[in-house]
Amino acid sequence: xxxxxxxxxxxxxxxxxxxxxxxxxxxxxxxxxxxxxxxxxxxxxxxxxxxxxxxxxxxxxxxxxxxxxxxxxxxxxxxxxxxxxxxxxxxxxxxxxxxxxxxxxxxxxxxxxxxxxxxxxxxxxxxxxxxxxxxxxxxxxxxxxxxxxxxxxxxxxxxxxxxxxxxxxxxxxxxxxxxxxxxxxxxxxxxx
Length: 192
Prior knowledge:
- This protein is an alpha+beta fold.
- Helix content is 12%, strand content 21%.
- It contains two helices and 14 strands; from the N terminus they run ββββββββββββαβαβ.
- The strands form six sheets. It has a three-stranded antiparallel β-sheet, with no helix packed on it. A three-stranded antiparallel β-sheet has the order 4-6-5, with no helix packed on it.
- The two termini are 26 Å apart.
């Protein structure tokens, strides 16, 4: 869950018609729920009020150009789930309802951290209790293409996974692996 030790620097609430923040003392305890019901795939909110940072931090979101975004809004309180209710599309700078399911009023607001993060500042144990739970959450670079099959991913993550898979498919002498090499269906991974 999200940690914040003082009042956040943005005007609160930043999304008064969309997000209810549940601030709980202690590290990683605060969270957000939805104030609206929206159909799967619909726009939840544009990402506005953010600023770019050179260095990765625990609450930052990786952007396609390799910088990191401080959300600077109540979207900060949207935590991780392996079966997320939202998708953070950093190419379009918008947050959408997951394409898999509708969002209901009162639903926990979550997104899949590896969908934006190639590397993570720190690993953590996921407690989403979803059937698809990955357990220890790592950046996409450590999870690999096969483990991420079926998850919605930002384009920059998908492209890096493709490059990584191509490098891994080459033998040390530069020859592409032949029979017996494991392949993941190209259509299984979803990108923007």
